[in-house]
């Protein structure tokens, strides 16, 4: 028989242990979770962590039992809150300048009380005081399920009104759809690691593809492979009208490792003489 002190210790270990972290992946804009909260309350709280590469997507939508709703979403990588309450015009809160679609985990806490809204992202709180009178409904839409662009990416530790349930415990009617939601895994592909863009191009991505921003690299093409500079003075003259001389950059090895360098091309009839600048 276990000693009473041992049993008490085991009780406190079970009581205060951290809940297991079980991520869930919403693989399409049409996937979502439909979780219950406390209905008829004058306050609400939603907490979760997310990661994504998408510019846009719904994070949380809650329709009040009274008139109105609150919507937390990503737009061009920025986190925004839209809130509508009875007798008040729609308000849009957009106080975070950061982009949160960088593929890293970000933690969000959204709290509403009468005349008070607090949005905390990664430990930084945005607080607004305005006329807010509402009564909570019973359902919270997570990642989609309403009009607009759904969220594609991963979430974890989704907690509604202080209640956390493992995604693996969600019932069939609490999420959609079975072939679009992956439990106990964050299935995201980092297409920018390693960087496929050559010559210092900037890689950008979403859940479907990557693109390369070749601005200021001196190269173009899908992966910044094609040089924008001619291979030689003769190549430059073949496609441009020239006078007696031209100051240009040439790229002698095309897309090779050598960087373009400045030269002065002097043209004499059908011949030319490149002068390399010091």
Automatic annotation (TrEMBL):
<protein>
    <submittedName>
        <fullName>Neurexin-4-like</fullName>
    </submittedName>
</protein>
<feature type="domain" description="EGF-like">
    <location>
        <begin position="188"/>
        <end position="225"/>
    </location>
</feature>
<dbReference type="InterPro" id="IPR050372">
    <property type="entry name" value="Neurexin-related_CASP"/>
</dbReference>
<keyword id="KW-0245">EGF-like domain</keyword>
<feature type="domain" description="Laminin G">
    <location>
        <begin position="22"/>
        <end position="186"/>
    </location>
</feature>
<keyword id="KW-1015">Disulfide bond</keyword>
<dbReference type="InterPro" id="IPR013320">
    <property type="entry name" value="ConA-like_dom_sf"/>
</dbReference>
<dbReference type="InterPro" id="IPR000742">
    <property type="entry name" value="EGF"/>
</dbReference>
<dbReference type="Pfam" id="PF02210">
    <property type="entry name" value="Laminin_G_2"/>
</dbReference>
<dbReference type="Pfam" id="PF00008">
    <property type="entry name" value="EGF"/>
</dbReference>
<dbReference type="InterPro" id="IPR001791">
    <property type="entry name" value="Laminin_G"/>
</dbReference>
């Amino acid at each position: 028989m276990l000693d009473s002190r041992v049993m008490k210790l085991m009780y406190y270990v079970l009581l205060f242990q951290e809940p297991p972290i079980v991520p869930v992946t919403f693989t399409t804009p049409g996937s979502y979770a439909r979780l219950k909260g406390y209905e008829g309350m004058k306050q609400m709280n939603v907490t979760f962590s997310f990661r994504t590469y998408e510019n846009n997507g719904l994070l949380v939508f809650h329709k009040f039992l009274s008139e109105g709703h609150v919507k937390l979403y990503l737009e061009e990588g920025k986190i925004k809150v839209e809130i509508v309450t009875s007798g008040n015009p729609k308000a849009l809160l957009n106080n975070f300048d950061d982009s949160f679609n960088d593929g890293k985990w970000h933690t969000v806490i959204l709290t509403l009380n009468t005349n008070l809204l607090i949005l905390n992202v990664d430990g930084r709180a945005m607080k607004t005081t305005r006329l807010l009178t509402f009564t909570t409904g019973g359902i919270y839409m997570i990642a989609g399920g309403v009009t607009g662009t759904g969220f594609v990416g991963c979430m974890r530790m989704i907690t509604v009104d202080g209640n956390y349930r493992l995604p693996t415990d969600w019932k069939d009617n609490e999420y959609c759809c079975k072939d679009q939601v992956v439990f106990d895994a964050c299935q995201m592909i980092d297409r920018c690691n390693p960087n496929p863009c050559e010559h210092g191009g900037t890689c950008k991505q979403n859940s479907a593809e990557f693109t390369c921003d070749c601005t200021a690299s001196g190269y173009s093409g899908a992966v910044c492979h094609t040089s924008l500079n001619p291979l030689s003075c003769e190549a430059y003259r073949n496609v441009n009208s020239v006078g007696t001389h031209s100051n240009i950059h040439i790229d002698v090895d095309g897309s090779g490792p050598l960087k373009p360098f400045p030269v002065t091309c002097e043209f004499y009839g059908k011949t030319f003489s490149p002068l390399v600048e010091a």
